[in-house]
Amino acid sequence: MADTVAFTVAPEPPRMAEPAADPTPGGVRIVVSIPLQKAYVFDDGELLWTSPVSTGKRGYETPTGSFTILQKKVHHRSTTYDDAPMPYMQRLTWQGVALHAGRVPGYPASHGCIRLPRQFAKKLYAITDHGTTVTITNRKPASPEAAIEMT
């Protein structure tokens, strides 16, 4: 049951990936497909969950690459965008890109962060650690098996 979302994908932005930790077998891994506006969450190579997301809109594109979670904070507010709430924030770059709960309209609408539905953000926050790998891609995995191969 594939969800279809119509939107225009902007050209790939410059990569700003922080160096990812050395991959270790197993553990939680997250793949975010920008064109599908979808996150895949794996544990020990097995699909746990998928969720719609909202990535960066034109001019604020979400960077692609392999990132690690650098910081976690349940109650966080943006220091850049009018003190906006960023619940269940999981920082991916020191330039301000993070996973967090927010409005997910079905298309890219953020200032570069990856917005998640609130209950999903809370669930995800509970199973990740500093160093969890997050892969952000402009590719469209045909299946969860194809998504895990991107990590």
Describe the protein's architecture and organization.
- The protein has 151 residues and is mostly beta strands.
- The chain is 10% helix and 27% strand.
- It contains two helices and nine strands; from the N terminus they run E-E-E-E-E-E-E-E-H-E-H.
- A five-stranded mixed β-sheet has the order 3-2-1-9-4. The protein has a four-stranded mixed β-sheet with strand order 5-6-7-8, covered by helices on one side.
- The longest helix has 10 residues, at 118-127.
- It is globular and about 40 Å long.
- The model is unreliable at 1-24 (pLDDT under 50).
Topology:
Layout lengths: L27 E6 L4 E6 L2 E7 L12 E4 L2 E3 L15 E3 L6 E4 L12 E3 L1 H10 L5 E5 L6 H5 L3
Parallel strand pairs: 1-9, 7-8
Antiparallel strand pairs: 1-2, 2-3, 4-9, 5-6, 6-7
Question: Concise description?
Answer:
The chain is mainly beta and 151 residues long.
Beta-strand content estimate: 25-35%
Tell me the major beta sheet.
5 strands, mixed
Structural class of the helix and strand makeup?
Answer: mainly beta
Give the spatial strand order of the biggest sheet. Answer: 3-2-1-9-4
Helix-strand pattern: EEEEEEEEHEH
Mean pLDDT: 86
Instruction: Give the quaternary arrangement of the chains.
Output: single chain
Low-confidence stretches: 1-24
Number of helix segments?
2
Radius of gyration: 14 Å
Question: Which of globular, elongated, flat, extended, rod-shaped describes the shape?
Answer: globular
Number of strands: 9
Helix content: under 10%
Distance between the termini: 24 Å
